[in-house]
Amino acid sequence: MRDSIEEIIRRAISPSCVRVKGRLTHPPSYGVYAIPANRGATRRYRFGNYPVRMQELEREYEHCTLKHLFLSRTDAIALSSMLNANKVLPGSHQDI
Length: 96
What we know:
alpha+beta; 5 strands; 31% helix; flat
C-alpha cells in the first residue's frame, strides 16, 4: 500500500535543516516545486535537487514555489506525481 499525500508531507523537512554546499545541499535534499498555473506547464508540480532544480525552474518559468523539501528523492517523486494527479494540495480549496 502506498503512502497518502499527508503521510509523505509529514516527512518533509525545513530548508533550515540543510546547508548549501557548492551547488547542492548537505545532506542532499529534494524539493517539490509548484509552477504558476498561468505558465502553461503540462505538469504543475516538479521535483529535483534543492536548490539547483528550483533555480532551473525559475529560469524557465520566471517563478516557482518550493512546496516541500525531503531527504528522500523517492518521497519527492511520489509527492509530485500525486499532486500532478490531484492538482490541489491537501487542505486547499483551489488550484495553487
